[in-house]
Every structure is written in structure tokens, then in C-alpha cells.
Write a structure and sequence with these properties.
binds zinc ion; alpha/beta; five-stranded parallel β-sheet; Rossmann fold
């Protein structure tokens, strides 16, 4: 979730005038991935990216990167974050529009973490028509098991799991030797809270999309299920929807 105050004016290059024509858009695969925090969305998105030769777009990453690089956009986003209010949907949409016009989106893209609300979905529709939704269905117990065992390197951010992805030396990062810590938001009570917030927030969005866009539901009932299996499932469904025929 991004924050904003209405008094601040967000200035993002408006690419409307260079916007991709509707016909050009037919060559792209336009996907959205949904899933609760800890469902492995990022992992699936990056695997699909390499399989389909499409881009992954995370508005969170775009904003974080802008802040890191201290760009004009980054400076403004940081002000919103610090002031604790929501970034307006139009601003996020502009960022997304701008992003999908980049060369790496030529074959298509997969949106991760956006849209989050019906309002955002409606705004997105003015820019692009989503062709399929990949919906990760992961039970709360599995999320809890995965995230409560997650450890993060304090130095480099590398992620480990006490059950599935152990470091070679307990408590020490394989990559940089930094200390492994449990992030504050990886504790069980916080995980539960985030899961329920996600469910509550997403329900109306799912209802909105149900009649408009085909869903590819991926159910994960086993914490050890290899991502490849889910990816195979997703690829089969994309083929059924006739979406992969554009991919060489
Ligand atoms: Zn490290």
C-alpha cells in the first residue's frame, strides 16, 4: 500500500500521447497475479517472466527503486510514505502505463501487487485490458508455516527458510556472512493480520473481475510443492485460453 497526501502533487511523465495503440496491444500477453502475502507470487511471476519472455511489473518495486535512486518521482513517493496517506489511483496508473510502454513489455507483462482495489481495477481498464488472472490459493496454515520460518539477512536481504532453504551455517548468511533475522512482519500474529486484510480487500476485486476476465486458479495445499508444478499448470491454462500462441 502506498501513501500520499492530496496537497502534494505527483508529477509523472504522462505517456498518453505516446500510448500504445489498441491494435498493438493485441500482441501482448496481459496478466495479473493475485495471492496473499507469502503465497510466492514473486517466485511465480519471475518464472513466468522467463518462460514467456514477458516483463513482471510490481508497482512496489518501481516506487522503491525510484526512492533508492532519489528521482523526482522517488522524492515525491517518499513524501507520501512519510506522511502516511494513500497514493492516488491515477498516479499509480500513470506509473503502470509508463512502465508497460517500455521495450521489455513488448511481448507482454504480468502485474504483481496491482490492482488492489476495484477503483484501481477500473482505472487500469482505461489503460489496458487484462486477459487472465492468475489466482494463487494458499491456505492460511501454509502461509504461516512458510513465513514464520523465514529468515532474512540483515546485510544483503537474502531470504532463507528454516525448513526448506536453510543457510549452511545456522544464523549466518551464505552470501555475505551477515546475521539472519526474523523480520517483524514475519511473526505469526502479523502474518495472520496481513492474510485477513488481504482476503477482505481482495474479495470485492475478485467479484469485480469474475465476470470479465478468465481466472487461472492455482491451489497450493502442500508447503513443499515445487513451483515448477504450479508453473506447468499455469502454462497449460494459458494455452487453453489461446494466449500462448503469440509466444515464440
Ligand atoms: Zn547476506
Amino acid at each position: 500500500m502506498f501513501f500520499f497526501t492530496h496537497l502534494l502533487n505527483i508529477e509523472i511523465v504522462d505517456i498518453d500521447k505516446y500510448s500504445v495503440s489498441k491494435t498493438a496491444g493485441h500482441d501482448k500477453m496481459k496478466l495479473v497475479i493475485f495471492g496473499p502475502p507469502g503465497s510466492g507470487k514473486g517466485t511465480y511471476a519471475s518464472r513466468l517472466k522467463s518462460k514467456l519472455n514477458i516483463a513482471t511489473i510490481s508497482t512496489g518495486d518501481i516506487f522503491r527503486e525510484a526512492i533508492k535512486q532519489d528521482t523526482e518521482l522517488g522524492k515525491k513517493i517518499k513524501k507520501y510514505l512519510d506522511s502516511g496517506q494513500l497514493v492516488p489511483d491515477e498516479a499509480v496508473i500513470k506509473v503502470v502505463r509508463n512502465r508497460i510502454a517500455k521495450p521489455d513489455c513488448e511481448k507482454g507483462f504480468i502485474l504483481d501487487g496491482f490492482p488492489r482495489t476495484v477503483e484501481q481495477a477500473k482505472a487500469l481498464e482505461t489503460a489496458v485490458k487484462i486477459e487472465a488472472i492468475i489466482n494463487l490459493l494458499v491456505p492460511e496454515e501454509i502461509i504461516i508455516e512458510r513465513l514464520s520460518n523465514r529468515r532474512t539477512c540483515r546485510n544483503c536481504g537474502e531470504i532463507y527458510n528454516l525448513k526448506t532453504l536453510k543457510p549452511k551455517k545456522e544464523g549466518i548468511c551464505d552470501k555475505c556472512g551477515g546475521p539472519l533475522i526474523q523480520r517483524k512482519d514475519d511473526t505469526i500474529s502479523v502474518i495472520k493480520e496481513r492474510f485477513h486484510v488481504f482476503e477482505k480487500q481482495t474479495r470485492p476485486l475478485m467479484r469485480y473481475y469474475e465476470s470479465k476476465v478468465p481466472f487461472i486458479n492455482v491451489t497450493c495445499n502442500d508447503i513443499d510443492m515445487p513451483p515448477e508444478e504450479a508453473i506447468e499448470q499455469i502454462m497449460k491454462e494459458l494455452k487453453k485460453l489461446n494466449l500462448t500462441k503469440r509466444i515464440p
